[in-house]
Specification:
Length: 70
């Protein structure tokens, strides 16, 4: 199962606990048309996970390639 986290959830302080409990290789991030910049979501999640933004981008990109068999 893959989980995609949306902006309203990610930006809440309490989201960090759940984000850390999900295996990184099963995670996606989305704005879902919320009018928030995806970079803000990546910044928050990378901070919560203790990763650099570049490492998080690589992780999400790898998940995309695996999920869509690219």
């Amino acid at each position: 199962i893959y989980l995609s986290f949306w902006s309203d959830f990610v930006m809440r302080p309490e989201s960090a606990v759940l984000l850390r409990s999900v295996p990184g290789e099963r995670m996606f991030l989305e704005t879902d048309g919320a009018g928030i910049d995806i970079r803000d979501i990546f910044n928050k999640v990378s901070y919560d996970l203790g990763l650099s933004v570049m490492a998080l981008k690589k992780l999400i990109h790898t998940n995309y390639k695996v999920f869509f068999k690219i």
